[in-house]
Amino acid sequence: MTSEPILEISNLRTVFRVRGREIAAVNGIDLVIRPGETVALVGESGSGKSVTSLSVMRLLARRIGVIDNGSIRFRGKDGKTKDLVTLGEEEMRQIRGNDIGMVFQEPMTSLNPVYTIGDQISESLRVHRRLGRREGVEAAVGLLDKVGIPDARRRAGQYPHELSGGMRQRATIAMALACDPTLLIADEPTTALDVTIQAQILDLMQALQRERGMGMLFVTHNLGVVAEIANRVAVMYAGRIVETGPVAEVFKAPRHPYTMGLLKSMPRLGTASEMKRTGAKLPAIPGMVPSLADLPAGCAFAPRCAFARDACRQAMPALSPVNDHHGSRCIRWQEISA
Ligand SMILES: Nc1ncnc2c1ncn2[C@@H]1O[C@H](COP(=O)(O)OP(=O)(O)OP(=O)(O)O)[C@@H](O)[C@H]1O
Ligand code: NI
């Protein structure tokens, strides 16, 4: 792909001040998303996935969380590229919901319980696209229909609590897409839904993304979801990207012991019932995720890593190029094969 990136994160560092101490939840990450491309961020809980997406949207809790280094170059609908790190809050408000759509795990974080679904979508269209009231409502009904909500006109007149979880998530997707964003950020959008609904929502997001050529940053801890939806994957551990590359390649031939461990602990299709029958457990990665306030010297994964050598405990390995589009932060990547 040669098209210019929609999003280009360089050396991003986001810190939290907790009880007078500074911890880096995101510690120097690089990430590029091009039009029509889905990049998945994966990693165990606390690895910095959500902080990365919140940094892009500049929705970090004021004063506690701050971006303290790097740049986030974003190309909006006007074709201009801006650094979101230094953008003023007013301009940022224009970008959120207009140039960047957002979908979160819990639809109620994006929906307001006291307004009807239709009013909320049309409100966003009126603010960002200057549509009149009637046009806004018509467009909202069209969008609800588009995201597969049956009887869209009647649903538009309902309040969020009158919809099921899956329907509510469809409504937030409609809202996120209302202004035709160039980038969609989805943070665990299907995690709260049951498996059948989850598959439907993923299909929907994929279809809409293809149709509109948006870039998508998809945060999940579910590697099955990554395989389903993403072109490229970035594996995070303790605030850093430890491996990145095309999904098919990384899943087939991981070059970082952490990625390998994640893949081994992943339930595969059909194995769940088999495991139930045999009583077998998934192999989890031994050891615990380190506390960010107390990271070991060198590679943060070394204490849990079967491949670790003394050198790993001395300096943080750089991202080695496995090839042009695949990188691993492991000094022994050449010896690693799943
Ligand atoms: N509001 C906050 N105050 C202090 N520290 C925070 C705050 N939010 C996040 N952190 C720190 O940032 C780290 C990364 O959090 P983040 O939410 O990005 O993890 P995640 O990868 O999204 O995990 P999960 O899979 O559980 O959603 C946390 O482990 C925590 O140390
Ligand atoms: Ni998260």
TrEMBL record:
Subcellular location field: Cell inner membrane
UniProt GO cellular component terms: plasma membrane
Keyword Ion transport applies: yes
InterPro entries for the chain: AAA+_ATPase, ABC_Ni/Peptide_Import, ABC_transporter-like_ATP-bd, ABC_transporter-like_CS, Oligopep_ABC_C, P-loop_NTPase
Ranges for domain ABC transporter: 7-263
EC assignment: 7.2.2.11
UniProt GO MF annotations: ABC-type nickel transporter activity; ATP binding; ATP hydrolysis activity
CDD domains: ABC_NikE_OppD_transporters (cd03257)
Pfam families assigned to the protein according to its UniProt record, in alphabetical order: ABC_tran, oligo_HPY
Source organism, top-level taxon: Bacteria
Reaction it catalyzes: Ni(2+)(out) + ATP + H2O = Ni(2+)(in) + ADP + phosphate + H(+)
Membrane topology designation: Peripheral membrane protein
SUPFAM superfamilies, A to Z: P-loop containing nucleoside triphosphate hydrolases (SSF52540)
Keywords of this entry: ATP-binding, Cell membrane, Ion transport, Membrane, Nucleotide-binding, Translocase, Transport
A GO biological-process term: peptide transport
Subunit (UniProt): The complex is composed of two ATP-binding proteins (NikD and NikE), two transmembrane proteins (NikB and NikC) and a solute-binding protein (NikA).
Similarity comment text for this entry: Belongs to the ABC transporter superfamily.
Name of the molecule in the record: Nickel import system ATP-binding protein NikD
